[in-house]
Amino acid sequence: MKWVTTAVAIEIAATGLILVLSPLLFGRLVFGGELSEPGQALGRLAGIALLGLASTSWPDRSARPVARAMLAYNLLAAVYLSYLGIIGTLVGVLLWPAVVLHLLFTALLAAERSAAPA
Fold first, then answer.
1. How far is CA 60 from its chain centroid?
2. Which of 16, 21, 25, 89 could share a disulfide with 47, CB 3.0–4.6 Å?
3. How far apart are CA 76 and CA 45, in angstroms?
4. ∠ CA(2), CA(113), CA(16), 5° rounding?
5. Furthest C-alpha separation in the chain
6. How many domains does one find in the chain?
């Protein structure tokens, strides 16, 4: 299942790229609201960090620390986005699909990690 790390890296890179290029669009689609100017700056900074994380998986997809970082990112993102959806203050059309995607990647990465030799 080495493809999982690559798939997650693509998702992380795409999210980072959207945040860097248009944090306003990201805010509308995922949170259903507008970002303030400081929120946009923070979104772009987060996007840069995500691009950095995604770049760590190329060309060596089998690096265990990278997979561990991706697992932590996806698990924490799923928990936080779920929390936002449950309290219902920041819900855009892509919030719940994002939760499902992060949960799927969390499960796939965890399965890959448990199947990998020590």
1. 20
2. 16
3. 18
4. 65
5. 47
6. 1
What whole-number distance in Å separates Cα of residue 30 and Cα of residue 92?
4
Q: What confidence score (pLDDT) does residue 66 get?
A: 78
14-41 per-position pLDDT tens digit: 999 999 999 999 999 998 999 999 899 8
C-alpha to C-alpha distance for 109 and 62, rounded to whole angstroms: 12
Q: Is 101 within 8 Å of 77 (Cβ atoms)?
A: no
Tell me the residue range of the domain where 60 lies.
3-115
Tokens of 66: 């990278």
| Pairwise CA distance, residues 52 & 46, whole Å | 10
Q: Which whole-number Å values give the CA distances from 93 to 31, 82, 89, 108, 115, in the listed order?
A: 8, 13, 13, 24, 35
Pick from 115, 78, 84: which is nearest to 99 by CA? 78
